[in-house]
Amino acid sequence: MDAEDAWTYIRQFRDGSKVAPVHRRRMALAVRLGIIEGYPDRTLRPGRSLTRAEAAAVIYRSCLFLVEAGPNPFSPDGDGVEDVTVFSLGSLRNRNARGWDLAVLDGSGRRLKTLRPEDAPPEPPEAVVWDGTDDQGRILPAGVYYYRGWLVDRNGLEHRSVLKPVFLEEKSVRGFVHPAFVLPGETLHLSAFATGRPASVTVDFSPPVAGEVVLTRTGRGALWTADLVVPGGARPGVHRATFTARYPGTTRRAQAVFEVGAFTVTAALEPNPVPAGGEVLITAWPSLPAAECRATVNLPDGRLAVPLSRRSAPNAAETWQAGVTVPRDTPAGRYGVIVSATRTGSTARATLWLEVTEREEDLVFILVD
């Protein structure tokens, strides 16, 4: 109960403003629970000491009829674990009770469920079971509710139990994966919203991407998170992430899908064939924006490393190019060219074959008359 709620209960009394701010919440709670009713002239008289009779009345209202709920919280979701709560009723048996009542209320005091059967005997039973439904048999939504018992004694006086909260929880989990498309080496963000205070939340993948990932609760709320760097060997394609929230005696699961993409590069050599001493243009088209592109030409005298430059604005169809001159003394033949593109820990490669021919000035023409 915050200060504003406390003042709502205190201000109904003519001298409510005289209650010291430090005591207002306690006084408001006692009023709300029916332990303090005030005087007939609608005053609290906070500066006055209680007489023995008044103190006895306060104790009497607090202790004559005791009602406790357990388990509390509970979750009526049909899983066989804590589906109902049991109200334990205790009363002074020598009062010769003439009747009793027990109800579940909402925050405004509106009666939602009457738990006393119409044909109930005048003495309250030791226990009453509540399955989380209202008087129409509908399961109430998760939230905080209140319960109170009433007892009518042999003198016709009504006595109320202390108004107490009962927590109806829903055990559920929802899982999310971001981004929906990821490449090996990139980070996958996992998040789950789990209600009902699970002991742990984990994620498994099918087909496997990594081992079981344990999520961490963010603060005291229902959000659980973890980050996963997708391994380089992750299989391209659609994957299913299964989120499992573990509760005492039961579990809840949810699924989300994402795709592991394949980072590829295609390349071309032009012209091809090319004479020794000639120039060849190497062009690469990565399937996704790349951070770097390079080419390695394997020649008889060693490898020739060629950095490529981006020739278009970064986008999904970007182009990288570089020109390279084939050494004049390169023998005719076929030579391998490996073009690689790199982005965020992923490297794609393409292998081409460069056909080198003899230089034109080395060709001998024989003229026949």
Provide an overview of this structure.
This protein is mainly beta and 369 residues long. It folds into three domains: 3-168, Immunoglobulins (Immunoglobulin-like, Sandwich); 172-260, Macroglobulin (MG2) domain (Immunoglobulin-like, Sandwich), CATH 2.60.40.1930; 265-362, Macroglobulin (MG2) domain (Immunoglobulin-like, Sandwich). It is 8% helix and 45% strand. The chain is built from three helices and 26 strands. Strands 3, 4, 6, 7 and 8 form a five-stranded antiparallel beta sheet that branches. A hairpin with a 2-residue loop joins strand 16 and strand 17. Helix 1 crosses helix 2 (24-32). The longest helix is centred in the first third of the chain and has 12 residues, at 52-63.
Q: Per CATH, which architecture of the largest domain?
A: Sandwich
Mean model confidence by pLDDT: 88
Query: What is the CATH topology descriptor of the largest domain?
Result: Immunoglobulin-like
- Order of helices and strands, N to C? HHHEEEEEEEEEEEEEEEEEEEEEEEEEE
Largest sheet, in brief, is: 5 strands, antiparallel
- Give the termini distance in whole angstroms: 116 Å
